[in-house]
Specification:
Elements: H1 10-17, H2 28-37, E1 41-46, H3 52-61, E2 67-70, H4 80-87, E3 93-97, H5 107-114, E4 119-124, E5 132-136, H6 140-150, H7 152-159, H8 162-168, H9 173-185
Parallel strand pairs: 1-4, 1-5, 2-3, 3-4
């Protein structure tokens, strides 16, 4: 199978799945209402690969010109573009993906500037002082439901060992999809 034909190609998954709050037992309206109740400052929590980034990307699309900052293991510092966004971000909603990764020495500057934000939604592994908007948890059942959405025609070949596949990926849906991609591409998966 060619990479462009693989239903588990990352770009295709991004376009196809997005984020559906119904899979977490809620609605956009309920999430937004709770966010307002929490003072428009909250965290989306969950383990690695549970869907936090997907939720934040979808939330950002629902906002009018949000400030979006993304941090991860490779990107831990505020850069000049981030500082420019922060400087012009007063009165806007801030979306901070991977807040746990931000270097300690950059956090005070971000916190000071964030006081002028119209609202903040961050993703973290644990809330740690932030009010928790939603805790995401991936399950084999969720992986199965998403598998049907991605490719009903290929779901059957992965359904028979779905639980074992899910455990091998430690519940990380991103790793789960990459393993499915590798299997269809004919690569050996551990």
């Amino acid at each position: 199978m060619r990479a462009g034909e693989n239903p588990f190609a990352p770009g295709r998954l991004e376009r196809l799945l997005g984020y559906d709050p119904a899979l977490a037992g809620t609605t956009w309206e309920a999430l937004e209402s709770r966010w307002h109740d929490l003072g428009r400052r909250a965290a989306v929590t969950g383990h690695r690969g549970a869907g936090k980034s997907a939720l934040l990307r979808a939330w950002a699309q629902r906002c009018d010109s949000p400030v979006v900052l993304h941090f991860n293991e490779q990107r831990r510092r505020l850069d000049e573009a981030d500082r420019q966004q922060i400087a012009t971000g007063a009165g806007r909603v801030w979306i901070i993906d991977g807040a746990d990764y931000l270097a300690l020495r950059d956090r005070p500057a971000l916190h000071r500037a964030a006081k002028a934000a119209a609202g903040i939604l961050v993703s973290r592994y644990r809330a740690r002082g932030w009010p928790e908007l939603l805790r995401l948890k991936s399950t084999p059942q969720l992986a199965g439901a998403l598998l049907e959405r991605i490719s009903a025609s290929h779901a059957g070949q992965f359904r028979f060992d779905l639980d074992a596949r899910f455990r091998r990926c430690d519940g990380n849906l991103r790793e789960f999809w990459l393993a499915c991609y590798d299997d269809l591409a004919g690569r050996k998966v551990l």
